[in-house]
Amino acid sequence: METAQDLIVCEHCDTVYRREVLTRGQVACCVKCGAVLERHQWIGLDGQFALILAALIVFVIANATPIVSLGLSGMSSATTLWGAVIAMWNDDSQVVSVLTVMTLFFFPLSQILIFGWVLWFARDGRRAPGFARAMVALHYVKPWSMIEVFMLGVLVAVVKASTYFDVIPGAGIWSFAVLTVLITIFASHDPRELWNVTRETPA
Amino acid sequence: MSALPRADELGIVGCHVCRQVSQASDDPHARCPRCGAGLHRRKRDSLARTWALLIAALLLYLPANIFPIMRTQSLFTRDDNTILSGVVELWRAGSPDLAIIVFTASIVVPVLKFLVMGYLLISVQRSSEWGARQRAKLFRLVEVVGYWSMLDVFVVALLSALVHFKVLSRVEPLPGVIFFGLVVVLTMLSAMSFDPRLIWDNRDSDD
Ligand SMILES: [Zn+2]
Fold first, then answer.
1. Considering CB atoms only, which of B7, B89, B136 is closest to A35?
2. How many domains in chain A?
3. The domain containing residue B61 runs over which residues?
4. Closest residue on chain A to B89 (Cα)
5. ipTM of the complex, rounded to two decimals
6. Running DSSP on this structure, what letter comes out for residue A126?
7. Average pLDDT value for residue range B43-53
8. Are residues A101 and A8 in the same domain?
9. Contacts with B, A 42-71, CB within 8 Å
């Protein structure tokens, strides 16, 4: 008799498969609809925790430092992410202001903190307090984190501005670039794998 | 290939949050035994919700494109840009590569989302047998590229914050950008409400 742990259901077409052990670089795909079932998780839990810690530090720098500054005949003007948020709020675009805060600050930060929290415990094979709730939250937050789109937006804004102004990149732009790289690395890692590598700790 | 079993036929259900496989039940309030998220054989009212959000997005898409999204003011000029004119300007400013990227994110992606989601909804409602695999691929494409449309919203936010040189030069957001931001959110919600498993339901063949 198979246990539920051995089975995996394709999220896109409902086809049932027996779980296979994947080796480095392997990706299991649904033969019926072609969706990815599972990927080999090539970074260990310690590695993932280290990357999350790095992401947290870079995230703080990205939020606190100017992204770019513009120069125009001796004057200069710089902005941080929060400068953009405040500008939109003051210019009658509160909806955009809220969207920006949520997708570039609140959701990414929650993602980093929650994932860091569960990883800290998962390194010893344990489930963090509130593990189930944390995993559900991670699932719902994930699609709303848009750092990489913002990174591209910064590049477009820089090119647009450079026709009229001198553009000087700040520490913020590099931090967002590093975050984009970290997000890309994590893209091949499914946090739901943590369910399989942790056990309930006896209370 | 029709030997491949589907969870629904086996009376089991995969949790959409944690992937745990458990016994399916008729209880609408059934919860996943592992993570506690609601368990549904198929997403609830998937078609109605997806349609409603898609139509709402389509209605806002008109003002998002008609109204300018950004005003550029300098001593003697005032220039209001719509999404499309922003792309043209980028092209003329000598960055055709970026212009193509912005055109893709701001115009191609939203239009693609409307067409694909509309097509998926209609084909599922007609229990279409045709090209299920292709339709499944189209859905995944929409899911992956959807949020890149937020690009222009971020560009306007950044430029409004940066270009603040009193009377000399000033950039301000205009209402179009609000509509556009809402369109992106609504189309994302619409795609999330759609249950791709419906593409494979009510079919006899497996091609
Ligand atoms: Zn599948």
1. B136
2. 2
3. 45-200
4. A160
5. 0.91
6. B
7. 93
8. no
9. 67-70
